[in-house]
Amino acid sequence: QVQLVESGGGLVQAGGSLRLSCSVSGSSVSTNAMNWYRQTPGKQREFVAHISPGGFTNYADSVKGRFTISRDNAVNTVDLQMNSLKPEDTAVYYCFCTCGQGSWGQGTRVTVSS
Length: 114
Hints:
Layout (H helix, E strand, L loop, with lengths): L2 E5 L2 E4 L4 E8 L8 E6 L6 E6 L5 E3 L7 E6 L4 E6 L8 E7 L5 E2 L3 E6 L1
Parallel strand pairs: 2-11
Antiparallel strand pairs: 1-3, 3-8, 4-5, 4-9, 5-6, 7-8, 9-10, 9-11
């Protein structure tokens, strides 16, 4: 059974940084596409960042140049480094793995104050 657990969310001032981490068990981050999404109340979950098994990355236009997705195969985690945070980045952030039929974490809340 695949399980994803996100951590690292919190409250930060605009312009600050946070690093989110997604710990995966039951599958390997090195052989699956991994993604970060985010969701705010009343809105659909939106794509944030992707990393492929081969290391290819891509980002939503809204976070390009500020967020970086990375993978640590040794500890089976995928991180999202978020810099120059803006109030509009406030959301619950979710990790998604294409493992099997696809698995989601429970989310971690990020709040950016102005």
